[in-house]
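Nuclear pore protein (Ditylum brightwellii), 142 aa
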Amino acid sequence: RSWSVHIDQSLENLFRGYHVGMQTGDIEFAMFNAFNYLVHSFVCGRKLVKLKRELDLFGEKMVEYKQIGFHNLIRQMQLVVSYLLISNDSSSLLSGQNTEIKDLLDQATKGNDTFAICHVYIFGYIEAYIFGEYELAADMIR
């Protein structure tokens, strides 16, 4: 089914999963659903202003409930969305030597967190591609 239904069809269930997790006290389940809701929202092209608000809101909840792993995963997406909202055809965060992204990558590398490392690169190459930095995007994939 997941291959035959558009990704935006998952948003309602993921959002509901977040609320069910919060209501039942399963905070990790709630934040897992929130994380996936945010990623799916980005991938399916939700409006950046609304997505930024949701990233900030869920990010605050993740910190409040000490779900720092999930917060670190969405931090890269928060940076990309913020940068897309304020930039105009300038170079990407990664080619601009953004220190926060370097810190996220260093932290993930030190913790041997391959999922977080992949996440940094995935959003990095998406951003590089959006700004037409195809060589940088290709290098990140390799």
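The mean pLDDT is 89. The helical segments are 11-24, 27-43, 48-64, 68-86, 99-110, 114-130, 134-141. ok done for today
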